[in-house]
Amino acid sequence: MSVAAGSTTVGFIGLGVMGAPMAGHVLRAGFDLLVHARRAGQAEALLQSGARWAATPHALASGADVVVTMVGFPSDVETLYFGDGGLIESARPGTLLVDMTTSSPALARRIGEAAAARGLRAVDAPVSGGDVGAREARLSIMIGGRAEDARALEPLFRTFGKTIVHQGDHGAGQHAKLANQIAIGGTMLGLVEALAYANAAGLDAGTLLSSIAHGAAASSAMTNLAPRLLAGDFSPGFYVKHFVKDLELALRGARDELGLDAPLLELAAARYRELAEAGYANDGTQALYRLYREKSG
Amino acid sequence: MSVAAGSTTVGFIGLGVMGAPMAGHVLRAGFDLLVHARRAGQAEALLQSGARWAATPHALASGADVVVTMVGFPSDVETLYFGDGGLIESARPGTLLVDMTTSSPALARRIGEAAAARGLRAVDAPVSGGDVGAREARLSIMIGGRAEDARALEPLFRTFGKTIVHQGDHGAGQHAKLANQIAIGGTMLGLVEALAYANAAGLDAGTLLSSIAHGAAASSAMTNLAPRLLAGDFSPGFYVKHFVKDLELALRGARDELGLDAPLLELAAARYRELAEAGYANDGTQALYRLYREKSG
Q1: B129 and B202 both lie in a single domain
Q2: For chain A, how many structural domains are there in total?
């Protein structure tokens, strides 16, 4: 089966800040689109643009050639794929199951195996780029699964992705995404602590950034998040609660699965957990600065 | 006194990988140049191009309008400024003393006070940009001291600097540089651990970078150091031993001077100290990856 606008029916489950704009791109590219979300209201704009509603995951899987899932947590993914009326038991033979949630590599492998046992195909394909990347159709998509399935999905992925890379077998997409989050963890901790140090030393943070933002300390976080942070804007580009989830997933992967000592990841997970527990789970990741400001008074 | 090519004699002490190219730019811009280095051989090329040799710091200070120091460690700076025949006692009234070594903010303040007491002027002006930035005359110069002295030095700083910013009073240049190093510490720890995680998970690191190098995890370190690291090239752009020095300075500043909890900085200092103690002090900072490779076998 080849995936193409005009002939392929895509089922999309999960229409949050990421899923809704992604599904919109799929629809505008000419794919037949079936949608489902826990909160039906999230589908309204898509339905008005020509998408069709599926009342349950089972109904959606029964009528789709490709099923994309973009939900919140690994537990949601597990229920969706393995629960009663779940995708594994509901999808028609040959269906391509595409989990784009940032989730557990081990769960991705389980889905891959269960899918194969039922004559289905599955890939894990988490993304980076955030809600802005989703709206502007320039996500980075990291794919785990068989290379031929990754290739087959390209016409679909191109509707909302810019960088589309097959990372390896089932779970490799998730591992790549978690590696990405580890790198971001280090950059965020360093950036925020540098600004806290500068603040404590009596420097003007904006003046500091004019010295350091384009040299060896340069990062996407410094360019995009430091100005927000310094303006006291802690609104979410990327939620603290989601970053905690990702860092905990990476930590479990490093410790339990890979046997890797990961001291930076441990610190990043601990700091962001502390921030979430202090009541800032719904802030953006730049809010880590609050831990310093509040300590120093 | 205004600083200008053709009328100002610049004395330059310290002609290592940073100092030598910086002094070369000063000379080529038309300044009269006096040089001194512990190892006289380091001055040879400059002397052949028209610089004059000063046998001691005292001789240099006695004949210069501006004295630039670019040496290794805060202890070297202390000896140079406060030792017998040091710059504070040797310089002529009105001389501008410019320490460009990455050094202690507290020492920079002491120099500022001692200089003022003798009718001298002093600024701290550490740089970032490394040996490449020094050769290509595009260093970032972070200045602490009086604004009028920072302004007066611009014609000199422009010969080797691109980003020249007055950060505040004596010591503020050093604090800015240390904040820069804290941010780099986080970025390096995150980058290296992300690559170690990817390696342990069986990903191809080059393929991983093609997914993540231009998104939210992007950094100067990822662009410039990850390819070297993955090629097994641990040669120094920036030495581990110097980074350890900088992180220890920042840690003392945070703890003892500012009363700031700095967990990321503590971890970065501990990891790089561990790397130096394992025998890799003369590698480049990307060699932090060795701590992971050697642990996982």
Answers
A1: no
A2: 2
Same-domain status, A195 and A275: yes
- Say if the Cβ atoms of A296 and B198 lie within 8 Å: no
Q: Which residues of A are the active-site residues?
A: 177
Which residues in chain B touch residue A208, judged by CB atoms under 8 angstroms apart? 167, 176, 179
The residue type of A58 is H
Q: Could you tell me which of A259, A283, A263 has the C-alpha nearest to residue A272? A: A283
Q: How far is A186 from chain B (nearest CA, A)?
A: 4
**This prediction's pTM:** 0.96
Q: Which two tokens stand for residue B4?
A: 């200008």
Cβ separation A210–B163 shorter than 8 A: yes
Q: Which domain holds residue A29?
A: 9-169
Query: Which of A220, A257, A292 lies closest to B217 in CB terms?
Result: A220
| Long-range contacts, stretch B41-48, CB < 8 angstroms, 24+ apart | B42/B15, B42/B16, B43/B15, B45/B20, B46/B15, B46/B20
Same domain, B50 and B156: yes
Say whether B177 is catalytic.
yes
Asked whether B30 and B56 are in contact (CB, 8 A), the reply is no
Residues A155, A179: one domain? no
Angstrom distance (rounded) from CA B72 to CA B241? 10
**ipTM for the complex shown:** 0.96
b/e per residue, B231-248, with b = 16+ CB within 10 A? eeebebebbbbbbbbbbe
Q: Compare CB distances from A202 to B168, B197, B211 and report the shortest one's residue.
A: B168
Q: Pick from A130, A250, A267: which is nearest to B267 by CB?
A: A267
How far is residue A104's CA from residue A136's CA, in Å, rounded to a whole number?
A: 27
For residues B29 and A249, give the distance between their C-alpha atoms in angstroms, rounded to a whole number: 56
Q: Is residue B4 part of a domain?
A: no
What's A239's DSSP letter?
B
Please identify every stretch of chain B with a pLDDT value under 50, giving residue numbers as ranges: 295-297
Residue showing tokens 């662009």: B223
Same domain, A152 and A238: no
Q: What phi, psi does A140 have (nearest 5°)? A: -100, 125
Please give the Cα distance from A194 to B177 (Å, whole number). 10
**CA of B54, closest CA in chain A: separation in Å?**
33
Question: pLDDT tens across A158-202, in order?
Answer: 999 999 999 999 999 999 999 999 999 999 999 999 999 999 999
B190–A207 CB contact, under 8 Å: no
